Amino acid sequence: QVQLVESGGGLVQPGGSLRLSCAASGSIFSIYTMSWHRQAPGKQRELVATITSSSSTNYADSVKGRFTISRDNAKNTVYLQMNNLKPEDTAVYYCAADPAHPIVAAQRGYDYWGQGTQVTVSL
Asked: Rounded mean pLDDT of 40-64?
């Protein structure tokens, strides 16, 4: 079992930055594929960024060059640094974890999810 707790969301102006954190507990964090997803009102949840156990990363086209996912295995924490935020980035952001390869996890659904943190980009 893995428990995930996100933090760091809030209200920011367009062009601003936020850093989300996701603290994991309950299992061997370092072996897990970790990811960030988001869901805007009236839209489907989408995968934003993924980081493997070997720290390989992948990003949605909409956030490439602006968002950076990273992990600190000593702290059992994964981060999402979000720069140059746009109003269309407004959503609830969720952290997810899975022991499988990211392609497998994405296809069958991640095993573990956090409760989400709201990010609002607005003047």
From this structure: 96
